[in-house]
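User: Predict the structure for this protein chain, please.
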Amino acid sequence: AIPKTISAASLGHDPLLRNLYRAARATFLSYRSLEQVTILMQSQDGAGQNTILEGTLYRSEALAANPEKETIGNLESKAHSLRWSGQ
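Assistant: Here is the predicted structure, written as structure tokens:
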């Protein structure tokens, strides 16, 4: 069976998703008026920057989530949108 969506676990990108939440939480704690944030995780190579992950998170979900302890499935379900490279 072909999966309908590509998950972080299936890609082996668990650390990237956890870092996405860490970055969102740090942003929300620094900028208290923001209600949502879109974060791009990029790599640099000879051809320039490549976006690996783009994620949009809402304040309430990002601050309620524990990126250290929650399952990847829970983190994925709480994100407003996630787009992985090649998706």
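The two ends are 18 Å apart (CA to CA).
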